[in-house]
């Protein structure tokens, strides 16, 4: 029974009860074929409900205490020693997201998030760039894939980045339970692996979106060109373009020429979506380009989008679009504006659902915890999409804080 929720709009008792019934049905449907024994099946149900509850620190012991377990041993066994297929759960998460949020014009968004850790024992932990702080930290890096449409957005896939210092160390791999087949892969290569899985699963999407860390990678771009995948990805200022008179020039030179023209008319003010503070309005310009060494897919073309801040015109970001020829620029701008949705998933996953609050150190428990947290987020996204129109309009940002309080005992 659901007996507490955190939203900013008034919701009926019947609607709240229906959420609990939906959650029970979802857990039952997934847990049935996933587990052969009743004990891990019940622990799985308890953990999902605990992650959705208002628990201050969502580590195994506090979640166990909230749900009424004497110790965290049931959750620890579920995450480590119990026999079940975590990729089958990942597939169920994707299916649930697509069933409730799937649209032909949906987008896949790639980004990585970080978990700062102490010590050197947690699988994949190393001194590496941390997006949370913008500097090198002792952390784990997690490339994630979000599915987003007009109906909502949630994670559908995940990877743990294994630095070369880990991938080439047999002793560390053995202690952390890293499977033998897992080799070193760059973060863009991990995104390629996830994209291949989404294509095989038939995930409906029109564009791939990502930041410049992925947009600059020639292997990821080549994968998209070979498979005619449309994308709108941020790119760095030094991305090489074919110059009009031959040779190669960086993207930044294109902006220099535009600014030298001194014509205000080359910019058009447009919104690329709604953010937490309302419409996200920028000045935009676009032009057809040829990328050095990267031929687009047949029937496709490359377009460079330049986005300029209205309040601070010196703040500029570049996006490279790969899409069917004659696609409206407004569609590309809309796709560029979808990228921020994975940042919201990262924020809510961490702040509300314990995405990185785990106390596990090994490969399998990491994947299990993160995927269960993804299921919790997928459930919330589906419930948000199903909110009545009046509740949805009233809730605003607060509807993302919808949490389900599991009964004690």
TrEMBL record:
Pfam families reported for this sequence: DDE_5 (PF13546)
InterPro entries: IS701-like, IS701-like_DDE_dom, RNaseH-like_sf
Domain Transposase IS701-like DDE: 34-243
Protein name: Transposase IS701-like DDE domain-containing protein
Organism of derivation: Planomonospora parontospora subsp. parontospora
């Amino acid at each position: 029974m659901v007996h507490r929720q955190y939203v900013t709009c008034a919701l009926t008792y019947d609607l709240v009860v229906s959420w609990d019934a939906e959650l029970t049905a979802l857990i039952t449907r997934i847990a049935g074929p996933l587990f052969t024994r009743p004990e891990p099946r019940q622990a799985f149900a308890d953990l999902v409900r605990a992650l959705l509850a208002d628990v201050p620190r969502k580590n195994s012991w506090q979640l166990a205490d909230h749900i009424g377990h004497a110790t965290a041993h049931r959750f620890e066994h579920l995450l480590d020693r119990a026999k079940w297929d975590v990729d089958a759960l990942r597939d169920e998460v994707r299916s649930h997201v697509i069933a409730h949020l799937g649209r032909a014009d949906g987008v896949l968004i790639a980004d990585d998030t970080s978990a700062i850790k102490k010590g050197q024992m947690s699988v994949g932990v190393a001194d590496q760039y941390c997006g949370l702080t913008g500097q090198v930290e002792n952390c784990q890096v997690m490339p994630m894939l979000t599915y987003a449409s007009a109906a909502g957005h949630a994670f559908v896939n995940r990877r743990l980045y294994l630095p070369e210092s880990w991938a080439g160390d047999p002793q560390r791999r053995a202690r952390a339970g890293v499977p033998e087949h897992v080799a070193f892969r760059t973060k863009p290569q991990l995104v390629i692996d996830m994209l291949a899985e989404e294509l095989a699963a038939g995930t409906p999407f029109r564009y791939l979106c990502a930041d410049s860390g992925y947009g600059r990678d020639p292997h990821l771009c080549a994968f998209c060109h070979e498979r005619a995948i449309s994308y709108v990805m941020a790119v760095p200022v030094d991305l090489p373009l074919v110059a009009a008179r031959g040779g190669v020039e960086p993207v930044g030179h294109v902006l220099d020429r535009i600014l030298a023209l001194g014509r205000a008319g080359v910019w058009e003010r447009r919104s690329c979506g709604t953010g937490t503070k309302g419409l996200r309005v920028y000045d935009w310009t676009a032009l057809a380009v040829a990328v050095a060494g990267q031929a687009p897919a047949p029937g496709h073309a490359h377009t460079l989008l330049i986005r300029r801040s209205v309040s601070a015109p010196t703040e500029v970001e570049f996006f490279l679009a790969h899409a069917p020829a004659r696609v409206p620029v407004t569609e590309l701008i809309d796709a560029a504006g979808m990228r921020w949705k994975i940042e919201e998933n990262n924020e809510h996953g961490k702040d509300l659902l314990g995405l990185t609050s785990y106390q596990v150190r090994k490969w399998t428990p990491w994947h299990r915890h993160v995927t269960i947290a993804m299921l919790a987020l997928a459930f919330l996204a589906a419930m948000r999409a199903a909110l009545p129109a009046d509740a949805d309009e009233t809730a605003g940002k607060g509807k993302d804080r919808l949490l389900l309080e599991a009964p004690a005992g």
